[in-house]
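Thread amino acids onto this structure.
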């Protein structure tokens, strides 16, 4: 096997659970069913742990959870991950089985970050389908990235709304800028120092061209920036009236709002929709049916540039936001996105996002609780992962009483079970055979 990359952040919350995972590629001919892994934390070698129940086919990759770290004090430490055994035996090529993560900082005031990725794309953009594929690949093994797509930047289409066009100011540095699609912005931070460009030269604003060669690294840079404030969404939805309401709250752990160093902290709340059928220029391969658009911005429930946040010491709570969902939107495919950010009317240099959150809109009538026990396809739970059919897309996981628990729009190989509580779930997915379903028990 070979360690392709790790998902270990360079920060940790003291006395919090910090999960460790790596992306493993099977370089051999036989399936990989177990791994023996040794962790060395700050020079102290821990006993080897055996991870069983794997099923990684030849040349396939899989995220493997190798346990948790719990740091008991503020500290700076290194972590070595060493795969000692594959299927109970020594690996034939151990030289690519070790990875080191240096200088992980543990502090009481650090909390988990969710990165906001704002993506400009339109149905009129011939280069956008290749960017969609590159972005899906970059996000495939990276959790905690919130993806929102603005249909703006290059002409307009049926999903363009005025707020999306307003956000094209992310292309400027306070003066003027050139607009284009595909483009993206990470936490509204200028990523030029990390290699972001407009396609030709270094960018002087948060927006950049999403190159396949650099996008993953840029995302990892933001994922490794510790957050200092939490963002939590509470919401309710009434399908009879189609009224959606939401509030947002949070805190600055072990501190006060002054730790953010914000000039004008604001909170923005959005609604996005998945699985929208439409057209798309630049699609060069035969397709069955319409192009599917996901994560499309449908509405901004707050002011377009956010609403001022009032802290009470370390805590804050928003007003109630509400919207009536238009009938042409599929209310079982909606998400709520909220993020706290700084704002400066004169310069995008002071717009950084401090943290974000995303929830699937809880739809009480998402799926009928009465469903046949006849299964269209079989799936399995292996090493904490729900393993999906290789051609599955638009995957939706429902509780047994019909509430939508999670959805994955892009093709996915697996879903971590840690996202769900113990119980029975119904999973639906679009495959080469059409819409299929099955039931599964998560222990």
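Threaded sequence (443 positions):
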């Amino acid at each position: 096997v070979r360690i392709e990359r790790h998902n270990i952040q360079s920060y940790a919350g003291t006395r919090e659970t910090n999960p460790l995972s790596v992306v493993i590629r099977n370089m051999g001919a036989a399936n990989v069913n177990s791994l023996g892994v040794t962790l060395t934390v700050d020079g102290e070698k821990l006993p080897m742990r055996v991870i069983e129940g794997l099923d990684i086919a030849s040349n396939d990759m899989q995220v493997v959870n190798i346990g948790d770290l719990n740091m008991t004090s503020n500290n700076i430490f290194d972590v070595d991950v060493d795969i000692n055994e594959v299927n109970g035996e020594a690996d034939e090529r151990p030289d690519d089985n070790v990875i080191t993560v240096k200088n992980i900082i543990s502090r009481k005031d650090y909390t988990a970050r969710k990165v906001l990725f704002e993506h400009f794309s339109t149905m009129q953009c011939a280069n956008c389908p290749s960017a969609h594929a590159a972005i899906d690949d970059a996000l495939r093994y990276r959790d905690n990235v919130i993806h929102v797509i603005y249909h703006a930047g290059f002409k307009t289409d049926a999903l363009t709304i005025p707020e999306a066009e307003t956000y094209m100011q992310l292309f400027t540095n306070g003066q003027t800028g050139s607009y284009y699609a595909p483009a993206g912005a990470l936490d509204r931070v200028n990523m030029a120092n990390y290699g972001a460009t407009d396609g030709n030269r270094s960018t002087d604003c948060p927006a950049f061209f999403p190159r396949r060669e650099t996008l993953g690294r840029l995302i990892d840079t933001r994922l490794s920036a510790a957050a200092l404030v939490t963002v939590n969404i509470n919401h309710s939805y009434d399908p009879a009236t189609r009224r959606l309401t939401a509030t947002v709250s949070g805190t600055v752990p072990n501190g006060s709002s002054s730790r953010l160093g914000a000039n004008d902290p604001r909170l923005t709340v959005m609604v996005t929709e998945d699985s929208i059928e439409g057209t798309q220029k630049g699609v060069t391969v035969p397709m069955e049916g319409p192009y599917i658009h996901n994560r499309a911005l449908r509405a901004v429930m707050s002011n377009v540039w956010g609403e001022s946040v009032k802290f009470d010491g370390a805590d804050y709570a928003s007003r109630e936001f509400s919207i009536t969902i238009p009938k042409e939107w599929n209310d079982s495919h909606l998400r709520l996105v909220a993020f706290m950010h700084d704002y400066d009317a004169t310069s995008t240099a002071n717009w950084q996002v401090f943290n974000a959150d995303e929830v699937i809109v809880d739809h009480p009538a998402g799926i009928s609780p009465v469903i046949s026990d006849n299964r269209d396809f079989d799936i399995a739970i292996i090493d904490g992962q729900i393993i999906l059919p290789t051609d599955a897309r638009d995957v939706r996981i429902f509780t047994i009483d019909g509430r939508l628990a999670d959805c994955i729009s892009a093709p996915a190989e697996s879903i971590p079970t840690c996202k769900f509580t113990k119980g029975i779930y119904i999973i639906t997915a679009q495959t080469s055979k059409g819409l299929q379903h099955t039931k599964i028990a998560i222990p």
